[in-house]
Amino acid sequence: QYAAVKDVLAGKFAIGDTVTVRGWVRTRRDSKAGISFVNLHDGSCFDAVQAVVPSELDNYSSDVLKLTTGCSVAVEGTIAESAGQGQDFELQATNVHVYGWVEDPDTYPMAPKRHSMEYLREYAHLRPRTNVAGAVTRVRHCLAQAVHRFFHEQGYYWISTPIITTSDAEGAGELFRVSTLDMMNLPRTDKGEIDYSEDFFGKEAFLTVSGQLNVEAFASALSKVYTFGPTFRAENSNTSRHLAEFWMIEPEVAFADLNDIARLAEDMLKYVFKAVLEERADDMAFFAQRIDKEAITRLQHVVDNEFVHMDYTDAIEILKNCGKTFNYPVEWGVDLQSEHERYLAEEHVGAPIILKNYPRDIKAFYMRQNDDGKTVAAMDVLAPGIGEIIGGSAREERLDVLDDRLAAMDLPFEEYSWYRDLRRYGTVPHAGFGLGFERLVAYVTGMTNIRDVIPYPRAPKSADF
Ligand code: ATP
Ligand code: MG
Ligand code: MG
Ligand code: MG
């Protein structure tokens, strides 16, 4: 009978039951009395189970005494009460089988010591074996499941939006091009530019930067929808909160306004934080101990308190008068930088904050214009330690206002003809937001670099694994 470590530790088996646990050695310690204690983990939970191995086993000196961190083994044994601290159960080993040795333990890159996050990134394929990467992976999974569960329970449908698109979205210029390998052999136009009409899609194509426009079409029929998928941005700066490939959660809601989606964002964050606190208490205890001592209390605080709302205009006043010198000076009309966002969330409020009604001219064409003629119904959720984790807005549902905006921003009407159709046929007020999944994981775990909360980070000069 095979058993997962988590089931052994949770007491799913009776004392005296014989089970086999398969996994990897975390540590081995030998007592003078001729017994070895081998800690085994299999990723099913944070903790390892202790196998007590007696020297009577046939392969005790040939195998057991040679086990090092990272060796893969199967240990058969009987479930026993553990005298040691922390754990209720252990395994009294009756058989140890070694699947794979660690060649030269002295040079094993994941040898048991504290490695820097930078070092671990160079071993993206071995990093999953570390405590920190295992904990991140389980928390990430828990958050993803909780997000889907939250929307499902609220009556939303999950929509997969395209990864390849010929629309350059907001003209933000952070696009990755998609082409066939023969791109270089494509004909040229008179101006010497590549003529994509002969290429696979018949047009220049890109990786998506957001599923929003596509998901709006589904909200205009199924009312409450969301997309949760990968998005791509050729971010030209190396920051600890930007990846070239990241996952985004984008709900879109018909008949909703800015306050409705601010509420939705708050409810969703509380729901998923609660899920993590309940389901991943083991991993969260690790983060609180090793990465950020506030990791648990911070989430509990968010769950227990109402979010603070603030207008962009008021935030600007606060930033101007807070007595702090920022690298980027603030005045009404500027886009907030991470330093401003962090000040507001970390120092001014000490919790996530919802900032609303940004200047129209720094925001995308599709955001709904407010009556004051200078702001749009946009909101960002700013979190301590990170800054923006969510960006959202009410969408402009009035065709004439949308068209004025497209014209003012010099965006090509032809490309948005399908998007304009949504306003021509049964348009409704609607709103939505985008939550960067990795920023969420970073906030929850207290990890300070977004590259350490995604299995395989993509960033400038790094896409090797
Ligand atoms: P920022 O100001 O931090 O560059 P943004 O305003 O450009 O973010 P949006 O276009 O509003 O980002 O995207 C919605 C959300 O996606 C953001 O709130 C953030 O959580 C996340 N996000 C945006 N860009 C990245 C990125 N390069 N890597 C990881 N997450 C990102
Ligand atoms: Mg950006
Ligand atoms: Mg932003
Ligand atoms: Mg934004």
From TrEMBL:
Entry-linked Pfam families: tRNA-synt_2, tRNA_anti-codon
EC number(s) recorded for this UniProt protein: 6.1.1.22
Highest taxon of source: Bacteria
Database matches in CDD domains: AsxRS_core (cd00776), EcAsnRS_like_N (cd04318)
Chief location of this protein within or outside the cell: cytoplasm
Keywords annotated in UniProt: Aminoacyl-tRNA synthetase, ATP-binding, Cytoplasm, Ligase, Nucleotide-binding, Protein biosynthesis
Matching InterPro entries: Aa-tRNA-synt_II (IPR004364), aa-tRNA-synth_II (IPR006195), aa-tRNA-synth_II/BPL/LPL (IPR045864), Asn-tRNA-ligase (IPR004522), Asp/Asn-tRNA-synth_IIb (IPR002312), NA-bd_OB-fold (IPR012340), NA-bd_OB_tRNA (IPR004365)
Catalysis: reaction(s): tRNA(Asn) + L-asparagine + ATP = L-asparaginyl-tRNA(Asn) + AMP + diphosphate + H(+)
Entry's localization field: Cytoplasm
Single GO MF annotation: ligase activity
Enzyme class: ligase
Domain Aminoacyl-transfer RNA synthetases class-II family profile: 143-455
Family: Belongs to the class-II aminoacyl-tRNA synthetase family.
Known partners and oligomeric status: Homodimer.
Protein's recorded name: Asparagine--tRNA ligase
